[in-house]
UniProtKB/TrEMBL annotation:
Swiss-Prot/TrEMBL keywords: Membrane, Transmembrane, Transmembrane helix
Lineage, highest ranks first: Bacteria, Pseudomonadati, Bacteroidota, Cytophagia, Cytophagales
The keyword Transmembrane helix appears for this protein: yes
Keyword Acetylation among UniProt keywords: no
Protein name: Prenyltransferase
Naturally occurring in which organism (per UniProt): Rhabdobacter roseus
Residue stretches spanning the membrane: 12-32, 44-64, 85-105, 111-130, 142-159, 165-188, 209-228, 234-253
Amino acid sequence: MPPETTYRFHPIHLHWLSLDVVAGAVVCHLAANHLPNGRTPTHGWVTLVLALVVFGIYSLDRLLDNRRPGQPVTPRHTFSRTYESQIGKALLGVLLLAACLSWLIPRELWAFGAGMVALVALYLWLVSRLPVKSHRQALKEPLTSFIYAAGVWGSTWFLGDELSWESVVLGTLFFIITLQSLLLFSHFESLRYREVYNLARWLQRKRTVSILNGITLLAGLCCLTVCLLTDYRYVQRLAVMLLVMSLAHLWMLRNPEKIIHNERFRMWGELVFVIPVLVL
């Protein structure tokens, strides 16, 4: 482990620490938890544990990335490498706190939580075994999207409340929009870092752009259908927010010159997931 470096705070560190990811996860979880009528009670301990776990997973993933030779040098990875000691200590504390607080969440979530822990451990092990310069790196985006959507949205399905068809449909759409986000990131990374191997490079540029456009079209059709069939105004408002999220991704795709510098696409892309705060 490198010697500990004196830490000096800069606002961009909030992004490099993935706190914007945490904010988006919490907002989307709360939005999903309120389905279908907008008045479903919130489980505060579940939300707190989710925030801690999201921070822990993203931090651990980046620390493990830095131990692999041939990893592209990005500002996020450089920051994690520079302050590896401090981040490692914070990570340990966060995961221990999450483990202690897990006893306060509803019993209905214990089996789901245990399954998610096993899935995340399997994911981290699998990713660590993948060669950096291999097209099998394309597996990361779909797997990450599934784990993120399952933890953020799927966890609300196991809180003991009646599961609505609207939550299932919008949750599936949320997973697809999450995949759109990560595919968009990998698209910009493949343009900025020629040595990177990811889903966008495997799909190639033309197919990637077609899929990103297609997801936005699918989101529009899905949201329109849900708005016409549901009896709840809250569902309609949340469906519109999911469509706005997908449209924001489309705007980023069509305006790369405004966001590709200094990896701004990641910061703005993560903040897209805060948009549902408008319906809370």
